[in-house]
Amino acid sequence: xxxxxxxxxxxxxxxxxxxxxxNLSNEDVQRTFINIGQQHIASIINxxxxxxxxxxxxxxxxxxxxxxDIGNIFPNIxxxxxxxxxxxxVVPFNREFFIRVARAFPLLKTFRILNYDSQPLCNLNSSQxxxxxxxxxxxxxxxxxxxxxxLE
Length: 152
Prior knowledge:
Helices cover about 15% and strands about 30% of the residues.
């Protein structure tokens, strides 16, 4: 392995939390990679339900075209190559989340949303003007498991 100068990776694992002694955090994952000398990484820890975690770990810059099962919280970087994104969370997605996604994933073509909750209707029907989340290249929006209020 002494010839290996760079290692580009994206690892997504699903963890059962039933036997987990403590809550896993992004800091835990980051610390592991710093301890082995790999510093250009990012991680996303997403508690998708009370019993399961999705842990995504990847090298930066992210050079893959697919990112799956991220939640409300993701690194503040541009995912320049991602054309397929699935988001899944137990916490409702708000307007700012969709703006952040539009900015962070400029080439997004397929967007899958899995979240049965939505922001409260009183927030959706207010007379305030909001920035519009624009997805220039989007050709497929899958909201089969998303609340209809997200279409607003």
